[in-house]
Design brief:
- It is a single chain.
- The protein has 394 residues and is mainly β.
- Helices cover 7% and strands 35% of the residues.
- The chain has five helices and 24 strands.
- Strands 1, 5, 6, 11, 17, 18, 19, 20, 21, 22 and 24 form an eleven-stranded antiparallel β-sheet that branches. Strands 2, 3, 10, 12, 13, 14, 15, 16 and 23 form a nine-stranded antiparallel β-sheet that branches.
- The chain is globular.
Length: 394
């Protein structure tokens, strides 16, 4: 998971506090269909028969399949992890008929992370990924004059099949209580297109050194040029989602999903609620219970400008449709890294992992030796992951 360092990161740490209490509600973005917020007692009166008997039976897919469409479970990729897979030191071991216990190529993770297969297992109905340290082990460093990083061992799993739009992917995850990143994400085989379903830094640390990241979940995507390495992702404030009353996501079980509707449209759902839309040239982001509709400020000297708060500058609009009509800049691939009409259009692997990201380690946000000894805080658990495709209702 490659997380782009926000401009003026130190400013963010100081200046962003919990969202103020505001129970204002607002209609969902125009063009995005959502279910009745107060459904009948039987929320799924005509479920996909393949969902019967799964851990998510009766939990309605929150995204709309579209007019004349119905959701169809992809049984060859969905998994409730109701089996056992003991940890093994053998890399790329398949388990569950759907996963391997390593990354989708030989990369071992961003320094100081070292993905090792023995940190992946399935126990008691959950996929578990653990982080730990081995005394004296180092990997990478922040710069030529800094001391080497202490290696943070972790695990990574990759699906044996790939997904392609239109597709809804949702997982029930226990976010670990650590400053490390935990992630459920999608990545193309050539590492040029990425959709992040979940990227969370669930804990603030024992000394409360990372409160902003603990209380916000990152909802994003990337487009890359691999050589020379160039990365785009949205940097607007709306790409960081928080909720009133939640000071940290660490230790909480959440449902989080993405509907990749088409090459220019992504919808993000948390606990069954639509919270973010990235659509062609505009954003819709839920803040304090209400949607805000924005589009990028025009480029300056070929760059997307940042505001005084360090986030990407955006302009307010009255609706998602209005924002798209006024915008002149893609929010999918504004620098045309992909040279394909600014589209997310490749088949993507599903990847689940924890990692100690380099930019975080350079700012002192690796877990300390004392913190990482708490195995429970440094274990990511995945209860299930489900994948649906829209099909003709008839």
């Amino acid at each position: 998971m490659k997380m782009f360092l926000l401009v003026a990161c130190a400013y963010i740490f100081i200046n962003f506090n919990s969202c103020s209490s505001d129970n204002t509600t607002e209609d969902p973005p125009t063009g995005v269909e959502t279910p009745d917020p107060d459904p009948d007692p039987d929320p799924d009166p005509d479920p996909d028969p393949d969902s019967v008997g799964t851990d998510w039976e009766g939990i309605t897919v929150p995204a709309s399949a579209g007019e004349g469409k119905a959701w169809k479970l992809q049984t060859d990729m969905s998994d409730d992890f109701n089996y056992s897979f003991p940890a093994t030191t053998t890399r790329n071991t398949e388990f569950g008929g759907k996963w391997t216990n390593f990354y989708h190529n030989d990369w071992e993770g961003p320094d100081p992370t070292l993905w090792v297969p023995q940190n992946v297992s399935v126990n008691n109905g959950n996929l578990e990924i653990v982080a730990n340290r081995v005394a004296g082990e180092t990997k990478g460093k922040c710069n030529d004059t800094s001391d080497p990083f202490k290696t943070t061992r972790s695990g990574c799993v990759t699906s044996t099949k790939r997904v392609l739009f239109p597709v809804f992917i949702e997982s029930r995850v226990r976010v670990p209580n650590t400053v490390m990143a935990c992630a459920v994400w999608l990545l193309s085989a050539d590492d040029t297109q990425e959709i992040d379903i979940l990227e969370a830094y669930g804990g603030a640390g024992a000394d409360n050194r990372s409160p902003f990241f603990a209380e916000n979940i990152h909802l994003s995507h990337h487009t890359f040029i691999r050589e020379p390495f160039t990365d785009y992702q949205p940097r607007d404030r709306g790409s960081w989602y928080s909720e009133n009353g939640i000071s940290q996501w660490g230790g909480q079980w959440i449902r989080i999903g993405v509907y990749w509707r088409d090459p220019k449209h992504l919808e993000y759902y948390i606990n069954g609620e639509l919270v973010r839309v990235v659509s062609d040239k505009a954003f819709a982001s839920k803040v304090n219970g209400a949607f805000q509709y924005t589009y990028p400020s025009p480029m300056v000297n070929g760059q997307l400008p940042s505001g005084s708060d360090g986030f990407q500058e955006v302009i307010q609009a009255s609706s998602l449709e209005d924002a798209n009509n006024q915008s002149t800049t893609s929010v999918i691939d504004p620098f045309n890294h992909l040279s394909n009409g600014m589209n997310l259009d490749k088949e993507l692997d599903i990847i689940i992992n924890m990692e100690d990201q380099t930019w975080r380690a350079c700012t002192g946000d690796s877990p300390t030796d004392a913190e990482i000894q708490n195995t429970n805080d440094h274990t990511m658990q995945i209860d299930w992951i489900r994948i649906y495709k829209p099909i003709d209702a008839n």
